Amino acid sequence: MKQLDLGKDKINHLLLSFAIPCVISMLINSIYNIVDQIFIGKGVGTVGNAATNVIFPLVLIFGAIASLIGNGASANLSLKLGEGKKEEARRTLGSSITITFLMAIFIGILSYFCLPFLVSLFGSTENVYPYALDYGKIIAIGAPFVIIYTALSNIIRADGNPKYAMMMLVVGAIINIILDPIFIFSFSMGVKGGAIATVIGQIISFLIAIFYLPKMKSVSLKKKDFIPNRSILRVIGLGLSSFITQMTVLVLFVFMNNMLTKLGVDTKFGADIPLSVYGIISKVNSLYIATILGIAIGAQPIIGFNYGAGNKKRVSETLKKVLTINFLVGIFFNLMFAFFPKIIISAFISSTDANYELFMEFAILTCRSFMLLISLNALEITTSIVVQSLGHVFKATMVSFTRQIILFIPIACFLSMKLDKGIYGVLYAGPIADILCFFFCIFIFSSEYRKLTKESTTVSTTMENQESSNYQGKRIVVTISREYGSGGRFVGKMVAEKLGIPFYDKELISYSAKESGLSESYIEEIDEQNTSAKFVHNNDDLLFLAEQKVIQDLSKNACVIVGRCADYILKDDKDVFKIFLFSDDESKVRRAIKYYKMDKKNALSKIKSINKKREKHYEYYTNREWKNWNNYDLLMNVDRLGVHKTADKIVEYIKNLDKPIL
Asked: What domains are defined for the chain?
């Protein structure tokens, strides 16, 4: 977070910094499977490719579990940091990591012993079954490693270090690519060799991820933080959309495997070719999905942080940019599948294979039918991730569920069985589901976007209405700096009433919220603490700049402004009168007890603490001393005359200056 300021840096810069490493990381996850598919396809043939396709749903299960915790924990981390709740973010993160380890081990053991049943469930044919079993057993052993490092990679990105997450996956992928041909060809291990190479790469990525945890920047994890607590329920809630997204892909994959093998038997292609081709097309398509997912997930810390801080303007800007980029990526992949299918597929099968011609015929058909409108998926996936980032889990879940379950499967069954289109009905169900889901996502995405812009408009209108005043005299601006408990705010309000000009104190909160995009509740919390960015949070810098702009705008007309370094911000304005009000300790304690309901025993120490923070805040942003009397035109001890007469004297002072004002 020290290197990248999510609340202030330019959106383009942040997207490049987060999304590119994230895209590369996501692509590398896809490459793990694609590399195996290529080498196994060349070394073993059609049945080898089909075997990796049968086991791919198992890989999706691992990814879904990792997303459930990893995406949820990273979204929660970004939101809590944006809200300034650092301790809560730390405890939840530690608990999430522990739960990830426990679930990873459990899923690995379960998948290993249930593998024979799963292989049949996932659509294996009789020819493919032994190959799938050999490949799957080794992949199941690597399950804990892949689940843990995938979950941690999301957390590492949210911690502001996407490059490390990328490097972690790159190293594992390179090792996998190097070892694949060695084990498959040199050691003649076939599908087993491809699986062993994959798991070794995953173990290396796992170790690199573990080494990062003590070096986290946004929070410093302690041993007690790793004890599971109820906060994991929130994490699961935030990660549920990602989990369901991958589980719906799993359901789709299993459905397609079974439908293609069942319906393929009645065609010239047989059962094994459609199963193998679909696996290859899906792996290539995963590069497209990985790219747009990477961009959307890379934007998640930016969206989550700024939404948690109430910075709706930056959230809106990020959404527009992410959607535009993802649509361009979708169009590119759409064109590749439509015009260059043979080039794509030839990488996965040898031209000497006995089934080469039929294999290529079905592959080209699939690319130009099932993949016809995949560019529309960009909106579906982007909407699901960004809505999740905004904390709207139910909507994100519905988006993930709609295309695969509600639309595609019923349409495919209807076309293939009711209309008797067979395997071709399944393929043409793809673009029909894509179109229908696209219109549904337009509604969801646009409704969320309108909410962001509507909030900004409402605040703007409120500010314009409150700025109106009946004052007709010459412009005069009074800034009131004051010790806590001195009665300075009441004096300032009386001065404004006597002069007939607007008064701004707490009113500046809503104006600053509009200017900065930070939530009013967050600004009010910081306002009460009166601490500086150096001592609390980077968002205070954003808040100070916003308050500076608001004060400069308001001071174009006559007004009284209390606090917020207004005397410094307007120091070069000759029509500004800078006043400092103070009081003795006894009077400050009396006012604090009466008006602020402070406990009498601790009142003085609290007052001194607040004034010390005000002093630090002022010095941090102005680089000058708060109680340097040369900064002010008038100093007054409110106790000498009392609140009412102090206000009278200030008005009298202003009216009796050599330059007549009123």
From this structure: 11-427+435-458 (no CATH), 469-655 (3.40.50.300)
Residue 318 pairs with which residues in a beta bridge?
A: none
CB under 8 Å to 65, separation ≥6 — which residues? 103, 104, 107, 147, 243
Per 3-state DSSP, the chain is made up of helix, strand and coil in percentages (nearest 5) of 75, 5, 20
Q: Taking the C-alpha atoms of 293, 235, 522 and 601 in order, what is their torsion angle to the nearest 10 degrees?
A: -160
Query: What is the predicted pLDDT for the residue at 44?
Result: 81
- Tokens 């999740």 belong to which residue? 388
DSSP characters over 91-144: HHHHHHHHHHHHHHHHHHHHHHHTHHHHHHHTT--TTTHHHHHHHHHHHHHTHH
Report the alpha-carbon distance of residue 8 to residue 5 in Å, rounded: 6
219 sits in the region (left: phi over 0; alpha: psi -120 to 50; else beta) called: beta
Q: How many CA atoms lie within 13 A of 131 on its CB side?
A: 26
pTM above 0.70, yes or no: no
Helix (H) or strand (E) holding 429: helix 422-467
Q: Is 579 in a helix, a strand, or coil?
A: strand
DSSP annotation of 217 = S
The residues near 237 (Cβ < 8 Å, ≥ 6 apart) are 72, 393
Give the tens place of pLDDT for each residue, 207-256: 999 999 988 888 888 888 899 888 788 788 777 767 877 788 888 889 99
Cα atoms in the Cβ-side hemisphere of radius 13 Å centred on 268: 7
The band of 501, judged by pLDDT with boundaries at 50, 70 and 90, is: confident
Neighbours of 360 (CB within 10 A): 19
| Rg of the chain over all Cα atoms, to the nearest angstrom | 32
Residue 650 · residue 480 · CB < 8 Å: no
Residue type, 532: S
Q: Where are the alpha helices (DSSP H) in 44-85?
A: 46-83
How far is Cα of residue 492 from the mean position of the Cα atoms in its chain?
43
The answer to whether residues 196 and 138 touch, using CB atoms and an 8 Å cutoff, is: yes
Is the predicted pLDDT of residue 522 greater than 70, yes or no? no
Rounded (5°) CA angle 613-614-617: 85
Burial (CB < 10 A; 0-12, 13-18, 19+), residue 81, is buried
Q: At what angle do helices 272-308 and 46-83 cross, to 10 degrees?
A: 10
